[in-house]
Task: structure prediction
Amino acid sequence: RRGSTLVESAIVAVAFLLLLTGIMEFGRLGFSYNEVSFAAQCAARWAAVRGSSSGHPAAAADVQAAAEVYTGALDNTKVTVTTSWSPSGTCPFSPPPGNPNNNPGSTVQVKVSYHFATVLVPLSASGLTVETTACSIITQ
Result:
């Protein structure tokens, strides 16, 4: 009987630890999504107030730097920021080819993606991509 208690405890401990590590990984995944989403929203707002009539119009590199400020808890080498402007003033849109139109009334779209690599539980061999898009109308 003493041996069976030890075996049962080992089985329960393994199941409990697996459940605990899964909860931790999904918590990290949720945190990463929240961080990426907040960065996209803040970068879109940052670009919206720096249109062509402001003192310093936003370029794609400026918007990327603004987004990376808000992803400080993540590995910035795995963060990708894509910025596009559209004269249509509607969200979402397909970005037109050519020069960006960052005039007031136009739309800026910021897409932030992060390559999430699991640490404890192997969910995917190549990792997961957490991605979100924010859109804002240019005011200045």
Observations:
- The longest strand covers residues 107-116.
- The helical segments are 2-48, 60-69.
